Amino acid sequence: MAIAAPGQLNISESPSWGSRSVDCFEKLEQIGEGTYGQVYMAREIKTGEIVALKKIRMDNEREGFPITAIREIKILKKLHHENVIKLKEIVTSPGPEKDEQGRPDGNKYKGGIYMVFEYMDHDLTGLADRPGMRFSVAQIKCYMRQLLTGLHYCHVNQVLHRDIKGSNLLIDNEGNLKLADFGLARSFSNDHNGNLTNRVITLWYRPPELLLGTTKYDEPEQLNKIFELCGAPDEVNWPGVSKIPWYNNFKPSRPMKRRLREVFRHFDRHALELLERMLTLDPVPEPVSSHNGLQPRRLCTWGQCCSIVVGPVGKIVEARAKTCERISAKDALDAEYFWTDPLPCDPKSLPKYESSHEFQTKKKRQQQRQHEETAKRQKLQHQHARLPPIQQSGQGHAQMRPGPNPPMHGSQPPVAAGPSHHYGKPRGPSGGPSRYPQGGNPPGGYNHPNRGQGGGAYGSGPYPPQGRAPPYGSTGMAGAGPRGSGGTGYGVGAPNYPQGGPYGGSGAGRGSSMMGGNRNQQYGWQQ
Ligand SMILES: Nc1ncnc2c1ncn2[C@@H]1O[C@H](COP(=O)(O)OP(=O)(O)OP(=O)(O)O)[C@@H](O)[C@H]1O
What residue's CA is closest to ligand 1, atom 23? Predict the structure, then answer.
């Protein structure tokens, strides 16, 4: 962990932040164990509100306050959206602490700092891991759309999450999905052209352009997996790839065909189309060369991208069509996949499940495995105990060999002992997810077949603004008007989110740092 510069954690920005003690909360249960600390379900004593407490790991006191926590706090204080986890406050513990059972927690550090989050019933990994769990297509679309909406909001606000994976997607029993764990996130507002480290994103989810810049030994294997599915990169499907540092070391020695359509042949056409665009090797369109100092620009319309160079009088000097670059969150939201049957369901129509976090499901599985092993050991001991004495003298082996009628010792083979995962029936509406609405159209909400009317876009209806100004301004996602008409779609009127674009007026008053200035109005952020 990097050392935090003194004073970087400016918790005094919000007067109440950091002023309360963790004793205002009663820890109920551990629900997560991350690289950077434990997460507890807790109850605020005064209000009874259930929250999640994320303890910031301070194991290595010499390194100071972890930079990951500083980043997470700084970024989450700025992001306010229904698909991004809400950081409510920071609380501290001045002295030795107790765990959920009231025992001293053994932490060397005498005291601690906690982030207080709204509580979410599940993470996607835990939910998907439930025995017998199957998501309907409408449910998958519902989660996918929320994921992309949250991501798009982050990108508009110049934040890259950089660790999207199932355990970082939190879901509540109202069917809301929220992005969490911004410990690896960073803002690109002040450093647009700066180099970003390639050592981020959980390995399995890391894209090829980062893997190709790597030196770690286990990553070629990951690249190989990508190439096996997505085909080998070359200058045709990824112009410029041969200039990436490790391309020559890692390029496959044999030709590898793209197999996406074959592997996912059971997907419908629109799902496949979107998957194709999301798993495109080439991350961005190749910029055309500059002309006499004129910089090329990227233009994106209807998934057809091109790089253009515009001359002094607005004339296009050079254009290169590209249809094969990786899709952005914004364009993905516009994919046919989300606008064809079965349409994404209303989150509220989803069944409610018993809380399921990856940490808990892993723990249960581990316990079950232990029980099975114990049962197996007991069975073996039982068999040994019943061996006739003749066995021990080395005779009568034939009796032990499993013949056509092996001795059963009169007992049935033991069934795996221990708790099997018995989850209660969903407490929600029976019959699983249903599409919304059953009859009639919601006011600008989900499943509106005519997405071009009534503002039936992402922010309206099903995503109540909850008193927050949407980041997209008045022409934003909520009620953006006909898709395609006027070119604004979901509030994004121009490619590359120009500084003075639809999210923030002219840019006047925007502070130079992430924390300063009037950016709240600019980007829809609220302190
Ligand atoms: N607000 C929350 N509500 C409910 N559960 C949560 C919440 N925040 C985190 N969790 C649970 O704790 C787990 C770990 O949280 P988080 O990813 O924020 O911690 P981390 O230390 O950064 O973990 P990682 O090692 O994955 O980076 C999550 O996968 C989730 O199951």
Answer: 34
Q: Is 54 annotated as a binding residue?
A: yes
Euclidean distance between the first and final Cα of the chain, in Å?
27
**Residues in the chain, overall count:** 527
Higher confidence at residue 217 or residue 416? 217
What are the backbone dihedrals phi and psi of residue 510, each rounded to the nearest 5 degrees, phi first?
Answer: -75, 125
CA distances from 165 to 121, 286, 453, 485 (A): 17, 28, 34, 34
What's at 20, amino acid-wise? R
Query: How many A from CA of 313 to the centre of ligand 1?
Result: 52
Q: Which atom of ligand 1 sits closest to the CA of residue 184?
A: 27
- Output the pLDDT for position 379: 86
* C-alpha dist (Å) from residue 338 to 139, 324, 350: 11, 20, 17
Q: How far apart are CA 383 and CA 432, in angstroms?
A: 46
> Of 18, 161, 159, 166, which Cα lies nearest the Cα of 93?
18
Please, are residues 70 and 8 in contact by the beta-carbon 8 Å criterion? yes
Mutate to test the pocket of ligand 1, among 49, 163, 167 (most ligand atoms within 8 A of CB): 167
**Alpha carbons 327 and 331: distance in angstroms, whole number:** 6
Q: Do both 176 and 226 map to the same domain? A: yes
CB 510, CB 524: distance < 8 Å? no
Residue that the structure tokens 């004593």 belong to: 45
Nearest CA residue ID for atom 16, ligand 1: 181
Q: Is the CB of 180 under 6 A from ligand 1?
A: yes
Domain boundary among the residues 73, 102, 119 is at: 119
Residue of 21, 27, 19 whose CA lies nearest to 98:
27
Query: Which of the residues are catalytic?
Result: 163
Domains held by the chain: number = 2
Higher pLDDT, 396 or 23: 23
Q: Domain ends where: 374, 389, 414?
A: 374
Give the atom of ligand 1 at the shortest distance from the alpha carbon of 357.
Answer: 31
- Domain residues for the domain of 60 are 18-119
Residue 412 covered by a domain: no
Does residue 66 surpass a pLDDT of 60?
A: yes
Q: Which amino acid would we find at residue 134?
A: R
Instruction: Check if 117 has its Cβ closer than 6 Å to any atom of ligand 1.
Output: yes
pLDDT of residue 475: 29
Peptide bond before residue 255 is cis, with ω within 30 degrees of 0: no
Q: pTM value?
A: 0.65
Which amino acid type is present at position 314?
G
pLDDT higher than threshold 50 for residue 184: yes
Which residue has 């809301």 as its token pair? 176
User: How buried is residue 527: exposed, middle or buried, by Cβ count under 10 Å (0-12/13-18/19+)?
Assistant: exposed
| 432 within a domain of the structure (yes/no) | no
Contacts of residue 444, Cβ cutoff 8 Å, sequence gap at least 6: 454, 455, 456, 457, 460, 461, 478, 479
52 CA distance to ligand 1 middle (Å): 9
